[in-house]
Write a structure and sequence with these properties.
By secondary structure, this protein is an alpha/beta fold. The protein has two domains: 4-257, TIM Barrel, CATH 3.20.20.70; 263-340, hypothetical protein PF0899 fold, CATH 3.30.2320. It is built from twelve helices and 13 strands. A seven-stranded parallel sheet has the order 1-2-3-4-5-6-8. Strands 11-10-12-13 form a four-stranded mixed sheet. A two-stranded antiparallel sheet has the order 7-9. The protein is globular. Bound molecules: iron/sulfur cluster (SF4). The site of iron/sulfur cluster has 10 residues, from loops.
Length: 352
């Protein structure tokens, strides 16, 4: 049964300084003040009523939780505790900086019901981290991920491809290194340049060029493919389309409200194109896939189908429960060619 997240955005709380790309108030649409016991209880009650019996997970996002004064961390977690003990809340998730975490901190969190710790890794390239004003190096992320795993908690890593100084090779290397360090899942947030940030100034001065949407998709599909091959979950691609993200706040970069679907859809397009490349160029054919992947195979605004065959050449599309979610089958003149986006696609590293 899927878990329902009860989010509390504590924008920038605890952060020792602002990283050049970050404005959590815009990203989350929240002013970021810390919730008190009453507000936490009310929010959990409200989500419980709409969750239709599904388990709840409380999440403190958008700041550096473990850099808050310990007393404040304890108060926040104590407010959730009764709901954990009652079984209303199944787990607690926090996000924080990698340099604000060690074994003792993770043990304290675990003792208070925290089950998942996400860290803002952003990159595993020290030059990229320095240019982004992070104030820590890649070694801090390796140490933090290891600590989280050693204490038996679930470890998440947030990565931001496209930061100043980053490249496709560097972004793929960052993913490899967080996997080796023990991350259980990742979130991919290709850079969005937000109004009012130092990064927006660099962009306007011509000192920084972010990935645009097409470049971000091309890079994220390679990252997603690597993650799938490694068996690691990618639980989010792209910033959530919140109230704070709009034409006034997004200056440039890779942003689309359904970026994750665009990226996943590219894997299916590449696989079908690879299989269909053996067929005559104007031949109609059929595609079958798992029912849950129909929209990924078709692509937004039927983009995949229109790229696969010229106008007027029909492509038949059918759902097939017997296929796994990663598989597609291309049918042509009674023959069936199957493929799998994880095992049958090969991407040579190509800079975007
Ligand atoms: S990226 Fe993380 S550490 Fe940096 S300012 Fe934003 S919330 Fe704080």
């Amino acid at each position: 049964m899927t878990t329902v997240t009860v989010p509390f955005f504590i924008s920038h709380q605890g952060c020792p300084h602002a990283c050049v790309f970050c404005d959590q108030r815009v990203i989350s649409g929240s002013c970021g003040s810390l919730p008190d016991r009453q507000q936490i209880g009310a929010a959990i009650g409200s989500w419980r009523r709409s969750a239709s019996g599904r388990p709840l997970e409380v999440a403190f996002f958008g700041g550096s939780f473990t850099a808050l004064p310990e007393r404040v961390q304890d108060e926040l977690l104590a407010s959730v505790r009764p709901f954990l003990e009652e079984g209303v809340v199944r787990s607690v998730r926090i996000s924080t900086r990698p340099d604000c975490l060690d074994g003792a901190v993770v043990r304290r969190l675990a003792g208070q019901g925290v089950a998942v710790v996400e860290i803002g890794v952003q990159s595993m390239d020290d030059d990229v981290l320095a240019l982004s004003g992070r104030g820590h190096g890649a070694a801090a992320s390796v140490a933090a991920l290891r600590c989280i795993k050693e204490e038996g908690l679930v470890a998440g890593a947030q990565l931001m491809p496209g930061l100043p100084g980053d490249s496709t090779t560097s972004a793929l290397g960052s993913l490899e290194r967080v996997i080796v360090a023990g991350a259980d899942f990742v979130r991919l947030y290709p850079v969005v340049v937000l109004e009012g940030t130092p990064l927006a100034q660099s962009y306007r001065a011509g000192d920084y060029r972010p990935l645009d949407l097409e470049q971000g998709i091309a890079l994220c599909k390679q990252l997603l493919h690597r993650a799938l091959r490694s068996g690691i979950d990618v639980i989010r691609i792209g910033l959530q389309a919140g109230d704070g993200l709009n034409d006034a706040t997004v200056v440039a970069g890779c942003w689309h409200p359904a970026l994750g679907q665009l990226v996943r859809s590219e894997l299916y397009f590449d696989l079908v194109r690879q299989i269909a490349s053996a067929l005559p160029g104007d031949a109609p054919f059929g595609i079958t896939c798992h029912p849950s992947r129909l929209s990924d195979v078709v692509g937004q605004k039927r983009r995949n189908l229109t790229r696969l065959r010229p106008p007027g050449v029909p492509i038949r599309l059918d759902p097939d429960n017997s296929l796994s979610v990663e598989e597609v089958a291309v049918e042509y003149l009674g023959q069936c060619f199957r493929g799998n986006i994880v095992t049958d696609l090969n991407y040579n590293i190509s800079e975007v």
